[in-house]
Amino acid sequence: MKRLVLFLLLLLVPLSTPALAVQPDEVLPDAALETRAREISKGLRCLVCRNENIDDSNAELARDLRLLVRERLVAGDTDAQVVDFVVDRYGEYVLLQPRLGGSTWVLWAAGPVMLLLALGAGGLFIRRRSRATGGSDPLNAEEQARLREILDR
User: Fold this and answer.
1) Per residue in 23-42, pLDDT tens?
2) Which residues is 53 bridged to in the sheet?
3) Helix (H, G, I), strand (E, B) or coil at 44
4) Are 41 and 66 in contact (CB under 8 A)?
5) Under DSSP, is residue 135 helix (H, G, I), strand (E, B) or coil?
6) So what CATH class is 15-99?
7) Phi, psi at residue 44, to the nearest 5°?
8) Nearest to residue 56, comparing CAs of 20, 17, 25?
9) Distances (CA, A) of 8 to 2, 15, 16, 152
10) How far is residue 41's CA from residue 55's CA, in Å, rounded to a whole number?
11) For the whole model, what pTM was predicted?
């Protein structure tokens, strides 16, 4: 009986994978345009779900964005024009990978700058530590006797 249950659970595993949120009524009849729409959608953030692209999101706003992308492609826009249109409408936040320029250069530079600062601080700490002397006076006779007594216990 346990084997049967395990076998049935294993059969259900492929069904538990997430499905794409693109609905059949959104798919364009032209395969080339649909491929372009999917590629553009992978780079656009769902404004409701945050770190999920609009192709994978079930939110209504994501559906609206998918339809908007497809409308612009059917109207004859290039991929860059479609992305620019969406960014003009919703702001840079809609891009999963922000562009390098304007105020986003701080975001791109923050990681490497912080790494260099941490490496510099670590190197400075190690350098100062290696130069430090013992820091305390040697034990006097009474302290050495007390230490031997403690260690011999």
Assistant:
1) 666 677 778 888 888 899 88
2) 45
3) strand
4) yes
5) coil
6) mainly alpha
7) -105, 135
8) 20
9) 10, 12, 13, 66
10) 5
11) 0.57
